[in-house]
Amino acid sequence: MKLDSMYQEVILDHYKHPHGRGLRDGDAEVHHVNPTCGDEITLRVRYEGDTIRDVSYEGQGCSISQASASVLNDLLVGKELSEARKIQESFLELMQSRGRLEPDDTMEDLLEDAVAFAGVSKYPARVKCALLSWMAWKDATAQAFGEAEAATQALGDPPTKETTP
Amino acid sequence: MTASPQLSGLLDTDAIRKDFPILDRLVHEEHKLVYLDNAATSQKPTQVLDALSGYYERHNANVHRGVHVLAEEATALYEGARDKVAAFINAPSRDEVIFTKNASESLNLVANMLGWADEPYRVERDTEIVITEMEHHSNIVPWQLLSQRTGAKLKWFGLTDDGRLDLTGTEQLITEKTKVVSLTLVSNIMGTFNPIESIVRRAQEVGALVVIDASQAAPHMALDVQALQADFVAFTGHKMCGPTGIGVLWGRQELLNDLPPFLGGGEMIETVTMNSSTYAPAPHKFEAGTPPIAQAVGLGAAVDYLTAIGMDRIQEHEHALTEYAVGRLQDIPGLRIIGPPTAEDRGATISFTLGDIHPHDVGQVLDEQGVAVRVGHHCARPVCLRYGIPATTRASFYLYSTPAEVDALADGLEHVRNFFA
Known about the structure:
The complex is a heterodimer. In chain A, strands 1-2-3 form a 3-stranded antiparallel sheet, covered by helices on one side. Chain A contains 6 helices and 3 strands, in the order H-H-E-E-E-H-H-H-H. Chain A is an alpha+beta fold. The radius of gyration of chain A is 18 Å and the shape is globular. Chain B is an alpha/beta fold. Chain B folds into 2 domains: 13-32 and 310-419, Aspartate Aminotransferase, domain 1; 49-308, Aspartate Aminotransferase, domain 2, CATH 3.40.640. Chain B has helices spanning 13-17, 46-59, 69-88, 103-116, 141-150, 170-173, 196-206, 225-228, 253-258, 293-309, 311-330, 359-368, 381-386, 403-419, and strands at residues 26-27, 31-32, 34-35, 97-100, 128-132, 153-157, 178-184, 209-213, 232-236, 247-251, 269-272, 277-279, 335-338, 349-354, 371-372, 374-376, 392-396. In chain B, the strands form 5 sheets. Chain B has a 7-stranded mixed sheet, with helices on both faces. Chain B has a 4-stranded antiparallel sheet with strand order 13-14-17-16, covered by helices on one side. In chain B, helix 4 runs parallel beside helix 5 and helix 11 (311-330) runs parallel beside helix 14. The chains are: A alpha+beta, B alpha/beta. The A-B interface holds A 1-3, 6-7, 12, 36-40, 60-64, 66, 123, 126, 129 and B 28, 358-361, 364-365, 368, 375-377, 381, 384, 390-391, 419-420. Chain B: Residues 34-409 form the Aminotransferase class V domain. Chain B: Its cofactor is pyridoxal 5'-phosphate. Chain B: Belongs to the class-V pyridoxal-phosphate-dependent aminotransferase family. Csd subfamily. Chain B: Its EC number is 2.8.1.7.
């Protein structure tokens, strides 16, 4: 059945037994919704320097959105931010491929369980479900670092302007 | 598969389905389409499709201008559609039927008329607007906008646990301060028929206008605007076998005379100078710009089609199907109907949840079997909040729906349960 390409065993496993679910301490929290279907997620990130120490989340939604958040937690926790960004961009590329992208070895190594979502990209209505937690993570990360930068600036010396004679 | 029962009161769906070529379509290669998303939009019979193409092939011109043959024919067809709609809803006068692009535009039009109106209709600070918790977003957001812009207070009727309006506080809700009460005749998410009479009576006592959203009523039952005793009635064409892009606002003549226009432009004027303009009488006062002419003609054909079958017969058919569907659905373990649990005082739109399985997943697995339902909050998110659920799966039937399609839904839901077990 064609449906099996979307509901891969690994996706249903993550849906039934989500990894890292529940809200824990974080540096930033965001709440994202998918207005067309009512999927919601609250997500927190905790960083230590550039290392992701935790991504915790709570939400309600379909199997695809919930499994995707679980896979995200598996993949990103412990990673450096630059590596995590690479993973996120690769996942986005896969999800926007409309089923036309066959993941190669490099992509499989990078995305691990997340390559199972390749089948979802054939269903335009469901792509947003798969991306919900990833967009939330991106937003939370921007906030965590945005605030950190703002705090550094507030504490440090005001930037000096060089005047040329 | 269960053998479908013989239900009494059904229409001859074998004959009716011949008018709807799309219903013969196969989806996902091998499955017969089971179209149960009629509350979102209905399918269109060939009679309507032929009216649309016939108009464009033979009569296309702009209306109410030009003296050539085509202009006169197009005008006659467009205005003829207005006559048909007026008769369909038992309007006292054809001039009370305003064509819009959909029910949302109709409701926004009323809200804006009342925002710009003079006394005694003007909605402003220290006045109140009353709606209900089961409205479609199109009958919530225009009133929120009006409330925010004017300072008027927005209030609403709550819901009972079985999906009906909670009328206990009607006299506290609708008061001397109330300028307008706007509510749906039939819920688009739960199928509930609302008891309009007592609300209309209370509104009349305090001098408030009554607006009725009949989008989910007009396709399914005889609609009589005089019997409703409302001031405005809004509905859309595409849910009643008509094309998209055409809606209706019916309003009482003296109100339409008194209330100001909202959109300005061609068609709606009498004379224009650089300093000011005077306006055409209703309905043209509210139809600025070139109207959706072909779509109005298509709606006229839809009205003819429904009238020939008979609105009472359609309602009887849907009631029989609803009774059967409610029974079959309630036999499915873990299925919870959101809304009235029986077929009494409700239409053939049934929302439900299935255990912990998210409606998106329910809808996807049903679709794979050819069964088209709607999933989500159905533009009535407050209803989902009220019942503590993120979304529902909604099956909605129409005049061409059959008991076999109810069975396909029920069998499909069993398959969904097994898939996610």
